Amino acid sequence: MVAALTTQLVCSAAIVRSARPSGLSRALPLRRRVTLRVANIAAPAEDMLVGQPAVVPPFEGGKRLANAPPFTLQDMRDAIPAECFEKDTFRSAAHLALDVGIVAALAIGAYTIGNPLVWPLYWFLQGTMFWALFVVGHDCGHQSWSNNKTLNDFVGNIVHSSIMVPYHGWRISHRTHHANHGHVENDESWHPTVKSNYEKLDKWAKLGRLLFPFPLFAYPFYLLNRSPGKNGSHYDPKSDLFTASEGPLVETSNKFQCAWIGFLAGCTVALGPLAMLNLYVLPYWVFVVWLDVVTYLHHHGPSDPEEEVPWYRGEEWSYFRGGLSTIDRDYGIFNKLHHDIGTHVVHHLFPQIPHYHLQKATEAVKPIMGDYYREPEKSPGPIPTHLFEPLRRSFARDHFVDNTGDIVFYQQDKNLKL
């Protein structure tokens, strides 16, 4: 009886698979079929006969959505219109020219006015534009700015140097992040700390990494020393971040950085230290906060307070499942200012798509993804104040993960207090 039942289920599944249509029309029916039946086929026949609830996978559902999805990366790729992968150098350059024009106008206007009441507004606006420049360099690093690698790297070096980011050093570590997103040990950006390493940190190291808002100023220190548990510097061509052949590229970016520091030194002599503090240093720290907030929220703090984002290792991890654990966000009026970087799931899986096609590509894959797409909570107005709560909540409870296990979730250190 057991053998007959198992054979019947397998044959039924094979018939369903052979009959399913191709393209977008198969996405939702396929998702429903697998969600309902795959667990039954995989379960031991003894469990089915005695009526035990082993037919439900352990992480099924939206709160801990960690099962392998019932669609493939190729399904998503096929759904995205071909034009979304086309790179338009003129359009990319126009976005950059607009950013540079706004940066220049803000600096000239604030310096000309010179009113103490104006400076705080300038710091915020200019820091936001520095963040927009970072996203341009980010696209250059993914080679999505144009089809010319030499041009991409040249523009990326200039743009990133202007905001004190080592382009090639960051580009290579960011490539590691994309190649290992969602992996507990191998991810490079905002990856979780395993319990054994967490327990080795002293109290101040824990607070500096986890107590809101201190981690929002971490980026320059990450460039210098990486994250806890990892060694190396983005400025060191001999760091284990890079291969021997990549060392000269890191040195090239360091030279661009030195040239920019020389330019800033000249401006300081010409305009005075106080002017440069207002014009560049304080906006730079606003940019750092923007970068840390946005990149952290890409991988932490779902809008639903009961949902938990899975992290993987071992055989459970794959590029596809790691990318699906990323989170899209709505940044209100800032969506276009920072080039739709909040449209992040499609970007992580298909980083070659230019930023100006991300929204169209996302709309195309949402029917494929079904429940595996976390619809971003809408901003209540121009300012995305709704993001404060998931950010605060995540830092308050997402502290470490288990040392073992191929699918793990964050745990809270309830003793962590200032």
UniProtKB/TrEMBL annotation:
Biological processes, Gene Ontology terms: lipid metabolic process
InterPro entries: FA_desaturase_dom (IPR005804), FAS_N (IPR021863), Fatty_acid_desaturase (IPR012171)
Top-level taxon of origin: Eukaryota
Predominant localisation class: membrane
Recorded GO CC terms: membrane
Transmembrane segments: 259-281
Molecular functions per Gene Ontology: oxidoreductase activity, acting on paired donors, with oxidation of a pair of donors resulting in the reduction of molecular oxygen to two molecules of water
Keyword field: Membrane, Oxidoreductase, Transmembrane, Transmembrane helix
One protein family per Pfam: DUF3474
Pathway, per record: Lipid metabolism
Domain Fatty acid desaturase: 118-373
Boundaries of every Fatty acid desaturase N-terminal domain copy: 67-107
Subcellular location: Membrane
Family of this protein: Belongs to the fatty acid desaturase type 1 family.
Name of this chain's protein: Omega-3 fatty acid desaturase
Organism listed in the record: Chlorella vulgaris
Lineage: Eukaryota, Viridiplantae, Chlorophyta, core chlorophytes, Trebouxiophyceae
